[in-house]
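SAMPLE LOG
Freezer: B-3
Tube label: C17
Construct: single chain, 536 aa
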Amino acid sequence: MLNNSLLLKPVIFIINLINTSYENSVLKRFIEFIFGIFRKLNTFYENSFASYLARSVTNLLKNSAIIGFFIGKGRFSRWWEESPFYRIINGIFDIPSKLLKNFFQKHEEFFGESLTIRLIRALLSRLEFIVGLFLIIILAVPHERWNNVYNVGIALVICIFVFINTVIQRHWVFNFKALDFTIILFMLAVTLAFVTSLDPSTGLKYWLFYLAGFLMVLGIVSTVKNEISLQTIVEMFLWGITIIGAYGVWQAVTGAVSFDPSLTDPNLNFNMPGRVYATIANPNNYGEILIMALPFYLSVILNSKTFLKKVVYMIMAVFPLIALFNTGSRSSWIGFAVSAIVITFLLNKRLLPFVFLGGLLLIPFLPPHVYNRIVTIFKAAQNASQDSSAKTRVNILKTVWPMFRTYMFTGVGLGTDIFREIVKNYHQYTKAVPPHTHILYLQIWIEAGITGFITFVWFIYRTIKNSVIGIYNTTGPLKSIIAAGVASIAGILTTSLVEYSWYYPRVMVIFWTVLGILAAAVALTEAKNRKLSENQ
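STRUCTURE (predicted):
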């Protein structure tokens, strides 16, 4: 398809020309010169005191019983798979599936003659393409045409397709084993918060958003059967990101978005252009989606077997990267910096000094409005009263704190609707009633109580823990995908220290999509290692 594209033919021709003449080219000598410098710097680092200190600390941690407790696989996973609770939940999906599957297999000859059944079977045999297409739709549909209920419908349809596959396809099941038990505990805590809400009628739609996230994770881990299907989902996800990235770049270049003083302090950001948002309607939410996706471009580039594919995804990554800087979202920029550090550390920690150096060298080349916006981060850190955004967040915390102390154990119930209804009864330090706390963790705690907060933190901790174990127990494509997933989560969790990143449900569903990709990659890694140990 790419080779036949009139738009890409000149680009592909140039790439192929460079590729075929690469061995004797000036480009090769230049690249070898650059890599030679890196090798010398790496040798210098390996023989330095800093490297000796890092190795000593790493060896100390590896032999530590305390650290071993935190990074070991633990007994909880085995307990979960053997527990009656797991069998009940698995049975809810498995028993109807087996009953229908037995009926289908008894009459398979009859059903096999049906053109409709054969068509459905062929279509759903590559369910990963359908999942990828749904992700593109979630990203590409403009905000004014989007209804957040679509998130629930898409997640539900994916799971319905999985269920149909468990009936008509061989060796297809709901892969509950890929889910950590803490995601079930968190969903139970969320459900309890909905049932015991001060106003349950307002919490139903928010509970459905959580359900959509859970079903998205379950649908992805049940769809992914091998590395190829996982990479297909990741790559199609990135095509969707490239589309909205290109749209954001177009908004920046054409000046389609005007400056909005309600989003940016004009006194601190003089001559700043409008903050782009593409299809997401809010630049902060747009930035949050971009930082969750950007690490996966690196994984695809590393996993690509052809020079052409590597170059294509490098070009694709440029659009969301440029768009990210034009969102003006300082919290997203910090989150992106954290994700870049995390993925570098997980894949090749020796490159960390060069990442820091590259970041510093990039500063003089930034557009003036981006540079000025970065400077305001440090001004806000020194004196929040000078920055209207930081000042607003401080005032929100002052308003919310008495409410938090009252409901910290039970929570007020799911959703920002009930949150606003309760918080307006307290003294307002803000000009208007705050819609949320501006901090993901605090919002979860206030809505779902201490149980919701603890199970969420436990779930995230175990997800990252199992992912890091997976990175060090595998090689090849799965390693880079897991590293990208961890970096993605690290970035958005950093941003969520000053943003309620789930306020816009499309951001929330992408968050859970990344967790689904992570869970699927870790499950493949564990299955691969089990197979290797059985063959030994």
